[in-house]
């Protein structure tokens, strides 16, 4: 996996693997810039899912009055795709993206 953004110091990521399932978490701390991440995998991906938690303003928060103001949502989901199709994935500013990738 490679980060193709010049501001990669604003990005943190970690991954875990359980059998053939990869969980990748990417955090973009930058306040304005979208970053690009390349995921380099072999073969067929049986399932690909991207879940995202993002805000429009760095001061947005959940409150007791509005506990669901910010929620993670599945923004992309595909089945049976070539790993070559998973290049150049965009990560929004001020966001956390969680990827679930099931390898074939």
Structure overview:
This protein has strands at residues 2-3, 11-18, 21-28, 35-38, 44-54, 73-82, 89-91, 95-103. With 104 residues, it is an all-beta fold. It starts with a strand and ends with a strand.
Please describe the biggest sheet, giving its number of strands, its sense, and whether it closes into a barrel: 5 strands, antiparallel
Which strand order spans the largest sheet, edge to edge or round the barrel? 2-3-8-5-6
What is the straight-line distance between the termini?
A: 18 Å
Annotation field: number of helices: 0
Order of helices and strands: EEEEEEEE
Helix content: under 10%
Structural class: mainly beta
Summarize model confidence as the mean pLDDT: 86
Low-confidence segments, given as residue ranges, are: none
Number of strands: 8
Shape: globular
Tell me the fraction of residues in β-strands, as a range.
over 45%
State Rg.
Answer: 15 Å
Write the layout of secondary structure elements.
Elements: E1 2-3, E2 11-18, E3 21-28, E4 35-38, E5 44-54, E6 73-82, E7 89-91, E8 95-103
Antiparallel strand pairs: 1-4, 2-3, 3-8, 4-7, 5-6, 5-8
Key terms for this structure?
single chain; 104 residues; mainly beta; 5-stranded antiparallel beta sheet; globular
Q: What's the short version?
A:
With 104 residues, the protein is an all-beta fold.
């Amino acid at each position: 996996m490679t980060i193709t953004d010049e501001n990669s110091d604003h990005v943190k990521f970690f991954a875990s693997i359980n059998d053939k399932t990869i969980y990748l978490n990417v955090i973009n701390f930058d306040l304005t810039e979208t970053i690009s991440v390349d995921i380099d995998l072999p073969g067929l991906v049986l399932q690909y899912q991207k879940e995202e938690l993002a805000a429009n303003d760095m001061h947005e928060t959940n409150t007791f009055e509005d506990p669901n103001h910010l929620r993670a949502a599945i923004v992309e989901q595909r089945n049976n795709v070539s790993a070559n199709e998973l290049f150049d994935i965009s990560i929004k500013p001020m966001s956390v993206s969680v990827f679930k990738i099931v390898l074939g």
